[in-house]
Amino acid sequence: MIQKIKLSACAVILGVAGYAQEVEFTEYDLDNGLHVILHQDNTAPVVTTSVMYHVGAKNENPERTGFAHFFEHLLFEATENIEKGSWFKLVSSNGGSNNANTTDDRTYYYENFPSNNLKLALWMESERMLHPVIDQTGVDTQNEVVKEEKRLRVDNAPYGQILAEVKKNLYTKHPYRWATIGSMDHLDAATLEEFQAFNEKFYVPNNATLVVAGDIDIAKTKTWVKDYFSDIPKGAEVKSIDIKEAPITEQINATYEDPNIQLPAIVTAYRTPSMKEKDAYVLDMISSVLSDGKSSRLYKKMVDDQKQALQVGAFNISQEDYGQYIIFGIPIADTPLDTLLAETDEEIAKLQTDLISEREFEKLQNTFENRFVNSNSSVSGIASSLATYHELYGNTNLINNEIDIYRSITREDIKRVANQYLNPNQRLVLKYLPKSSDSEEKNSK
Fold it and tell me: For the Peptidase M16 N-terminal domain, which residue ranges apply (predicted)?
């Protein structure tokens, strides 16, 4: 039996190693500044076509927040050659699927098609870039869609305001201080000309990366990319955001009342470095030590053993300019929020004082090896990674060697980073509370 188990383990290891092959790609620029990345994988007759624009919530006017997320929706409305309401029908009727998403740093559009429809996907993305219809009808339609999304995912969602409250308190100057979904009042107040100007400024080839990944022929794809994209005019240079925050030197205390919850929560948040820095990778590992799975330190202690928390988690939110490291806990019964805070502080202090065990470190390395392999296990995942590594990190080949950064992290690095960033005088403590009857009374008057 033992021998069989050993053989099974070897098979798993060999299987993982087999999939962790180098991702080959070709990349180049068109004369208009569009960066193109092609990845050929002919194992299945599918192809992902995607465009990542280097525009997110941080590029917005502080009085017009929500524009980047709004455009995620608006640029599906219509183009000069695709009628209003026809985009999704065109994709689905040709056996495809598509979507888009927005962060503070970028906006990403993609289509998955059978590979014989690659030209259709390229044409559609070129239409989105060159011929979008930005008119009042489309703006009004998507305004209602975005409002409903905000009601569903933020306003009426339990604990839906946590990230917005964290960002609002951690940043005073940088545009990370507002929520990605933005303000509905700002969208209502915006003119059609403002929307058109935003499109003209940011959704241009020299501010974008086009990725084609899957069952393709590189030479043919290059020809088609040239045919569909090379005549799109280059836009004005988009200047990167360069706004620095002063270090946090005293604990920030804040409260927020949420009408959608019955149980309070305690949130601690720390401003952390850019995702491009090695320390951001170390913070990923610290999150895993603290709250990844039932054997993690916070979960085992506070949920299983001491039964103080219904839920607890540590999250490293890495972004282009800064990151947020967030620890979140919901108490059981009458456990005070301050108790949860003290218990999490105790676990951080252990990381700052003692090296994690060799066994814990080995488990940690295996976890990140598996994540790396899984992130490149599908054509669509590879397309997203290629676009992200080029557009946000400036190094496309991180798709192959980012794992080397994790492998280079030592137990000493974990201790050092915990000491450098996770201190009480560098953080926000947010008490996230159910809305009190007193508050409801005041608001009703």
Answer: 36-174
